Amino acid sequence: MTTDARRRAILECAARLFHHYGHAKTTVADIAREAHMGVGTFYLVFPSKEAIVEELSSSAHGRVLQAMREVAEARCYDSFGERLTGVLEMRVTMFQKLAQEGQHACELVHCSSGPVKEVHARFREHEAALLEEILTNARRALEVPPLDVKRVVALVQRAYATLSPPWLFEQAPEESLRVAHEMCRLLLLGLMTRGEPDARGEKRRGKPAPRAR
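-> structure tokens emitted (213 positions)
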């Protein structure tokens, strides 16, 4: 078996065990046994269990982000409201799909583990960059009034933290998507207001903005 083949086998076996038992209760010996190899062989491929947790967490977060990007690209000619709604609803849908992979699957996208927290922080940075791109393009096309893009993105991410693991999994998938759609409509109404609140909460004057589609 080549090193690449061993690597794939270890990741596949670790994913199955993590999803079923959780990575905290899964040992390196468990993974090696599931992959039909010795513990020594395991350490020739991965330096630690944490390295596997980080890689699987990166893969899970990457699938969510890639799906969001694909929606943004597919809707590049749609209205700003349709693009943003599609991207944020896909975010919820992908996290729900991860939850269906096993009882402990959500631990790879949200838990107190150091590697997962680091990966999730990077995911939020990439997610913010995607949302900033969507909002910046909308500003250039005069679909939204002048606004502080970074601040708006931070507020959107904070709002959607309530639709992230583990809270997301406390609701039925249909209810989560309904809430995501309604939340996005509220966000769009806020973005389309006549002026943008400043740091003191006072509204700046501005021209009427186009209606959200």
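Confidence is low (pLDDT under 50) at residues 194-210.
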